[in-house]
Amino acid sequence: MGQLAAMVLAAGQGTRMRSRRAKVLHKVCGKPMVGHVIDSLRLAGVSRIIVVVGHQGEKVMEAIGGGVEFLWQREQLGTGHAVSMAKDIFAGHEGHLLVLAGDTPLLAPETLKELAAAGRGFAAAILTARMPDPKGYGRIIRGTDGTVLAIVEERDATPDQLAVDEVNTGTYIFRSQDLFPALAKVRPENAQGEYYLTDVIGLLVEEGKKIGSLQCQDWQEAMGINDRVQLAFAEGVLRDRIRRELMLKGVTIYHPESVFIDKDVEVGQDTIIHPFCFLEGRTVVGEECVIGPGVRIVDCELGSGVEVQNATLVESKIGDGVRIGPYAYLRPGNIIGEQVKIGDFVEVKNSRVGSGSKVPHLTYVGDAIVGEGVNIGAGVITCNYDGRQKHQTIIEDDVFVGSNANLIAPVTIKRGAYIAAGSTITKDVPPESLGIARARQDNREGWARKRKGRADE
Ligand code: UD1
Ligand code: CA
User: Fold this and answer.
1) Which ligand gives the minimal distance to the CA of 164?
2) Active-site position among 93, 255, 361, 391
3) Kind and range of the H or E element at 228?
């Protein structure tokens, strides 16, 4: 399909979503609807993709990013009007043009390839589907011999037409030279006062042109999302697909219904995912990891053999064999080496932790560089914020930080040094020495006995 061009209609507001955000920006499995449509076109090998934007066009363009062309439809006068924005581009274009809606996120690339093949030799071909509940869709009207005669929108349909369960999926392939002249004849004479792309079909039939069609095997794939109930349904269908695909590739998911994995997430072989986990964004999980229960991972890269339970990990890179949690929080910007332990009630932010280091419990590490082989005792705090600015703590290789120490940044603990438990460290500590900063203990012998004696008087 190297030479095939496609248009994606994404200019509408999506009134039925009742949202301040343009419909095509609503996410399905972590990705805006329109992004799914574009992914499928790319996977189908379409070389040129033109996206029509209008309502919140800047935001839509930003969400899509590069690799496509944008066309503005400043006023959204209907799907036919949206396609006509491209008439100058395709004037004189020989060949076919795929047209898709930005609100059909489940369409598979294979289906698009099949539609392109089905369009050969026709002025237009429509991707149709038989819906258990065709409500809201345009109906496919066929002649007694089965040929397509027209598409009738729900609001303009007669009761007989409404009984038809074969619907227009809003996905078509047109011969450009037939499409644009027919579009010029479309009039907004219908219940919505819009220029309907669907009217082109009837107009082409009137000209004696033949219309092809391809029926989608799986109606769910053809779903158009108009409201949030449909959004949730599509989300369920896609979540299921993603989990199935991963399981068939060798990932164990014990209770799939409670595991939520976004579209672009990658998970390696023999990784086990326990219940109640969320793998989001561009997360990559290596092989033989054990994730969960109760883990949320957003935009992270995990090596192999990583074990995480009851933890939240955001925008961090985690080396092989690291153990995290339970109840750990990795905020953005961490690079954690191999075989590190980040234990219970530990928060780490914008820090590097070298291989083999241990932060087993009740600790805050922020804006720090922690070397290799470091042991950080319970309750240690890097005091990185002075109320105005953030400062760095450097803990070099093989340092031992005793429990409940406060490290007042900026401060450096040199290689092999020890920090006595309970110290508040404000000065750099030289290599292989002991930093101790705490009041001396004074034992008052017999104090309790005397106190008791006083109370008995
Ligand atoms: C459309 C079809 C209907 C089909 C259904 C499939 C028409 C007239 N009807 O109806 O036959 O069954 O899709 O889901 O085409 N858009 C623009 N500019 C506009 C109007 C719409 O870019 O001026 C975009 C929207 O952003 C959306 C897509 O076109 O992504 C479809 O528009 P929508 O309003 O959802 O059409 P439906 O009523 O669902
Ligand atoms: Ca729609």
Assistant:
1) 1
2) 361
3) helix 228-248
Ligand 1 center to 79 CA (angstroms): 6
Does some domain include residue 77? Answer: yes
Same domain? 255 vs 379: yes
Q: How far is the CA of 102 from the centre of ligand 2 (A)?
A: 8
User: Same domain, yes or no, for 200 and 252?
Assistant: no
DSSP state for residue 56 in the 8-state scheme: B
Domain ranges, residue 26? 4-222
Q: How many residues does the chain have?
A: 457
The residue contributing the CA closest to ligand 1 atom 19 is: 78
Helix (H, G, I), strand (E, B) or coil at 390: strand
Cis, peptide link before residue 105, omega less than 30° from 0: no
> Do residue 213 and residue 275 come from a single domain?
no
**pTM confidence score:** 0.93
Q: Whose CA is nearest to atom 22 of ligand 1?
A: 11
What would the pLDDT profile of 48-91 be if each residue is shown by its tens digit? 999 999 999 999 999 999 999 999 999 999 999 999 999 999 98
77 lines ligand 1 (CB under 6 A): yes
- 255 an active-site residue? no
The answer to whether residues 217 and 258 belong to one domain is no
Q: What is the pLDDT of residues 257-293, one digit of tens each?
A: 999 999 999 999 999 999 999 999 999 999 999 999 9
Q: Which atom of ligand 1 is nearest to the CA of 199?
A: 8
Instruction: Read off φ and ψ for residue 360, nearest 5 degrees.
Output: -75, -30
